[in-house]
Amino acid sequence: MANATAAALLLVAGDNPERIRSEAAFAKLCGACPVPASSGRTSRHRLNRGGDRQANAALHRIVVTRMRIHRPTIDYVAKRTAEGKTKPELMRCLKRYVAREAFALIRTPSAASKPT
What we know:
The protein has helices at 2-13, 23-30, 53-69, 71-82, 87-107; strands spanning 34-36, 45-47. By secondary structure, the chain is mostly helical. Strand 1 and strand 2 (45-47) form a beta hairpin.
């Protein structure tokens, strides 16, 4: 399952990850960018419905797993829940954070790909 999750995120980047200029562009490709969904006095955001559905599902799997077993994420969820955030809002923030981490890993050249 972990390989399929990583593969879904790599497929979004494609053969040419340099074409994705920023982590915000990568998040948009994954469907993890915030879209304003405010009405009246309420100010909130929701996830973009566009983007690659498989990549968004991969981010969802990562976030759900982190919310269960990753101590820093559990602490973050507890803190933001005490501030009044709902679970969908927390998951939106965490998906964006995971997309940011994945983008950094995709853009960083690995030791195996460096010429000798």
